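U., I forgot to send this yesterday:
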Amino acid sequence: MRTISALILLLTVNTLHIQPDLKARLDSFISNQPANQPGFALSITKNGKILYRNAAGLADVDTKTPIDSLTNFRMASVSKQFTAMGIMLLEKQGLLHFDDPIGRWLPELPAGVGRHVLIRHLLTHSSGILDYETLIPPAQTTQLLDADVLHLLSTHDSTYFIPGSRFRYSNSGFCLLALIVQRASKTSFPEFIRAHIFQPLHMDSSAEYIADSHTPNRAMGYPADQSITSATKGDGGVYTSLSDYDKWINALELNTLLPLAPTLQRLRFPITNLTNRYYAAGWFIDLNTPNLLFHSGSTCGFANFVIQLPQNNISIVYFSNLAGNSAPFKTILQILKDSGYPDLTSVFALHEQTR
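Result:
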């Protein structure tokens, strides 16, 4: 039955781009969004070709700058894909291994954590490492960096559970992965990501966030653009646009940097209480739809959702500069479903795992 369902899905999705009413329905919905408020950008691609791309609202309310395909949004947790790719590239080069205890790279951590937590545990949210957000001193006013996260964790020789025994989403783990990339590569984390991902893929306007640096075509986040945790890089520091992110997805489909599917297969870890759903290296994996890949990113000023259907090389990308702005995305998924796409609303159960 699974094989028959997958075949039906394949045949159905392959014909979507020729349906005459889909573009009109999406255009109508997007054109009816408020024009003078923060908004969103949407891209649907297949085999690296744009099926649909449109945007609504303002990138900057003060300057009345409209959102377009070149607007750079803060990716929040979608950034974890790039952090994980940095680790995977270093593993490919033989500079580290997924089963390295993280204490090898981060000796500041207490022995109970450093010896028992492996890199693969960080990549799959199965480390049990404490949430750094709960350790921030009440009087803290300056933004934290990844090194500050390490310092906070270095004073606690405990984890929530035995590493590798269960799933618990962890921003802490990806901050530590950014530091491991930096130490294993002997270069700064932003420079490594730029040189080994953004530059080879010609993602020319994408960047890891650095305070007081210029990000071209930058969307401002609403109701607040920054928070005390907005300067960490490994868990959420990438800014990118629809145009650049489509290059990223196309590179994953073509295995330009490395074969993604077998690496996800090696790493994937089951999500507690969600049947046939896993996490690996910056992607939620849902085998119920079949082999759907997903991630979301939420901050004080942004809300992002990315879906990929690898069997069909179709991606659906939604970036918003308004916190919690998931309602338009839900409507978009309904429009797609009505036009023949599979029901993709299961991604919201995965989105809940990031909270």
